[in-house]
Amino acid sequence: MSEVVIIGAGLGGLLCGAYLSRRGFGITVLEQGLQTGGCLQTFVREGERFDTGFHSVGGLAPGEPLYGIFEPLGLMSLPWEKVPDDEGFPFLRLQHPTEGVSAMEREHILEPYKGSSWRLRGGGKVLADALQADILAHGGRVLTRRRVVRIASGTAYCSDSSSYSGIIIADIHPLSCMAICADHIRPSYLRRLRSYRNGDGVFSVYIKLAKGIPSDGHGIFADGSLMIHFGDAGADGLSHNLTLLCFAPARPFDRNELALSCIAKARQRLPELEPASWWTSTPATWERYTLTPGGSAYGFIKDYDNPSLSFLPPETPVPGLFLTGQNLGLHGVLGVSKTALRTCQSVIEYSKSL
Ligand SMILES: Cc1cc2nc3c(=O)[nH]c(=O)nc-3n(C[C@H](O)[C@H](O)[C@H](O)COP(=O)(O)OP(=O)(O)OC[C@H]3O[C@@H](n4cnc5c(N)ncnc54)[C@H](O)[C@@H]3O)c2cc1C
After folding, report:
1. In angstroms, what is the span from residue 299 Cα to ligand 1's centroid?
2. Which residues, in sequence order, are CB contacts of 349 under 8 Å at separation 6+?
3. Are residues 116 and 212 in the same domain?
């Protein structure tokens, strides 16, 4: 069976690795960071664990779209917690400030939340770790601190001088992939990629609370654009940390000033919010940790009203080089998971032709 080299251990790369390793492909995942997971990473400060990207997801109940993808990979045994729906899911009140997102796209992103809404106890890292363990259990390998700096003739070359050959799947921004690809790429394809725009990044304030707040796992909106996500409830039933998130441009801004205004806005909705300590991340932080250009949260902006000019297939003009991840179809755990299956189908078909 063919060797497959996956660049990037974000959700898209890890899912492709898990799916293809179960089908007998030899898998090597190369991740430039210290941690796998990309936007699923978590970090701990002063004893509190914070999620960076992923916080909640829709469509995980039996019969719903994500269940059908996760169940065969054993991911439904993870500690998913269904968010009570008595107040209506907060995402249904989402006002997405990113330009270019059509009503149709909003509908596709939000539709699964109408069925059910879920959070993962332990955070996104639990999902990334489970996928990584699955790849290892099926004979694959996941290597961190391996930044791919060149792709040529089916080989990925890393900055530490190691190299890995096979069918290549890039779970990185398509323009970053093409920038390191030494093979011939049709100019029209590059022009097309360059015509796409990236969405804004996210500014986050991670707050350790002076006093715990009761939480049933619901994220809430402080206003149309500021989201409040609670950390896992402790044994006392209280969350002792929460994260505020809002969209933010890639250009520099005063993070302290924005953090204070986010906290003030959040306190209007949640008067009991009393920070003990807080930390921030900006789109520049995202760019540093995931190498996503401009720290864009969801990558290329998709427009359902203009799909041929905003969606990408996994196939590239370079034979044996495929894309996956949030820039192709919809972003988010559901969107990236659907795209990973599509990429795997293309890789399986391609491998039959070898
Ligand atoms: C703040 C924020 C909140 C979010 N909240 C939610 C949510 O609540 N629910 C939801 O469903 N989705 C959410 N999302 C979106 C979701 O997390 C992402 O769409 C998804 O995880 C992206 O996965 P990916 O595999 O496409 O990319 P990424 O997670 O970006 O993974 C790409 C990986 O490639 C690595 N890499 C990059 N370049 C190289 C290189 N040259 N060599 C080797 N490795 C490389 C990076 O380090 C990274 O690990 C959120 C995103 C953000 C930013």
Report:
1. 9
2. none
3. yes
Please answer whether residues 310 and 322 qualify as being in contact, where contact means their C-beta atoms are separated by less than 8 angstroms. Answer: no
Report the CATH number that the domain containing residue 33 is assigned in CATH: 3.50.50.60
Confirm if 221 and 90 have CB atoms less than 8 A apart. yes
Q: End of a domain among 293, 315, 339?
A: 293
Q: Is the dihedral of CA 52, 337, 316, 36 positive or negative?
A: positive
Residues 230 and 97 in one domain: yes
Least confident span in 3-17, 40-54, 125-139, 207-221:
207-221
Using one digit for the tens of pLDDT, what is the confidence trace for 36-70? 999 999 999 999 999 999 888 888 989 888 999 99
> Beta-carbon neighbour count of residue 68 at 10 Å?
15
Per residue in 317-338, pLDDT tens?
Answer: 999 999 999 999 888 899 999 9
State whether the beta carbon of 7 lies less than 6 angstroms from ligand 1.
Answer: yes
CB of 326 sitting under 6 A from ligand 1: yes
- Write down the H helix ranges in 28-161: 65-70, 103-115, 124-137
204 and 283 inside one domain: yes
Q: Is residue 93 scored above 50 in pLDDT?
A: no
Residues 273 and 202 both lie in one domain: yes
| Pair 104, 141 in one domain | no
**Atom 51 of ligand 1: nearest residue by CA position:** 53
Q: Whose CA is nearest to atom 41 of ligand 1?
A: 148
Do 101 and 156 have their domain in common?
no
**Whether residue 324 is found in the same domain as residue 207:** no
pLDDT classification of 310: cutoffs 50, 70, 90? confident
| Ligand 1 neighbour 226 (Cβ under 6 A) | no
Average pLDDT on 200-219 reads 91
Residue among 15, 42, 54, 178 whose CB has most ligand 1 atoms within 8 A, to mutate: 54
What is the predicted pLDDT for the residue at 40?
A: 97
What's the pTM value of the predicted model, to 2 decimals? Answer: 0.94
Task: Give the C-alpha separation, 205 to 212, whole Å.
Answer: 17
Closest C-alpha residue for ligand 1 atom 35: 8
User: Looking at the 3D structure of the chain, how many domains does it have?
Assistant: 2
Of all protein residues, the one whose alpha carbon is nearest to atom 6 of ligand 1 is: 54
What distance in angstroms lies between residue 274's CA and the mean position of ligand 1's atoms?
30
* Closest CA to ligand 1's atom 36: 8
pLDDT bracket for residue 88 (50, 70, 90): very low
Rounded distance from Cα 53 to ligand 1 centre (Å): 7
